[in-house]
What we know:
By secondary structure, the chain is α+β, with helices and mostly antiparallel strands. Helices cover about 30% and strands about 25% of the residues. One of its GO terms (cellular component) is plasma membrane.
Amino acid sequence: MSLTSRAKTAKRRRLWAVVAGLGGLGVATALILTAFSDNLVFFRTPSDIVAGKVIPERRFRLGGLVEKGSVQRQSDGTTMLFRVTDTAESVTVTYKGVLPDLFREGQGVVAEGSLNRHGLFVASEVLAKHDENYMPKEVAEAIKASGQWKPGTAPAPK
């Protein structure tokens, strides 16, 4: 084998090694991005859900206020049914477990879970802030946009 053909062969090997390395890097990047997008949990308001902006069975966070007069304990003693509102729309939530101590009607709440095929939000986790005046920023913006924000009824979001 001549010196020129050896150089060409070595050059080809390097080229294939670079191509294989770039391909492996592309596959690894695609796997990381896929795993990342599967773990993203978006925040939605009841108005988003009623408008059909949510895909059923996909996890997301629902934020709003616990609607007054909507909290019901089911017969099994551990399942709670309540409605979350942004004052424009409301969504029924079911949660099985112990609710936070500060959970109550009129309180700001964030529930993580998914919407089932029947339009019921099935929560796996319910969060209530220690501050009684808590209201998620997105919910406060939705209430203001709907024109139903009444200064003095609840403090402006922080």
